[in-house]
Design a protein that fits this description.
mainly alpha; 62% helix; two-stranded parallel ribbon
Length: 115
């Protein structure tokens, strides 16, 4: 494979990895926000679609944290996100290892690897 093609494959693998990482990060942020709210200010939490679309005590609840059923990850969403992250990270490291030493100087190393 020519150096230009190897670099393009690496860049595509990096894009795929970053997108997979973003999805896992969004799931993590949502679940952390809900967990923090439940621990510190449970009256702010609103779960829409279950007949309780307002905080229990709106006068002191402050800004609502709304969680709708469509945004909450289920087991399949979690499994798919983690599997995708694993596969894209593996592909990224494989693409990195196929780069020539000259090619490796032109791009950043994948996360967690040695340059």
């Amino acid at each position: 494979m020519k150096n230009g093609q190897e670099l393009q494959c690496y860049r595509e693998a990096l894009d795929d990895y970053q997108e997979a990482k973003k999805i896992v990060s969004e799931i993590s942020k949502l679940t952390a926000d809900v967990s923090n709210c439940l621990s510190t200010e449970p009256y702010r939490l609103t779960i829409s679609g279950f007949g309780m679309d307002m905080p229990l005590k709106p006068e002191f609840a402050g800004k609502q944290l709304v969680c709708s059923p469509g945004q909450w990850p289920n087991e399949q969403n979690l499994a798919e996100a983690v599997t995708r992250l694993y596969k894209t990270e593996k592909a990224l490291h494989k693409a990195w290892s196929s780069l020539s030493p000259e090619g490796k100087k032109q791009v950043e190393a994948p996360p967690g690897s040695l340059k």
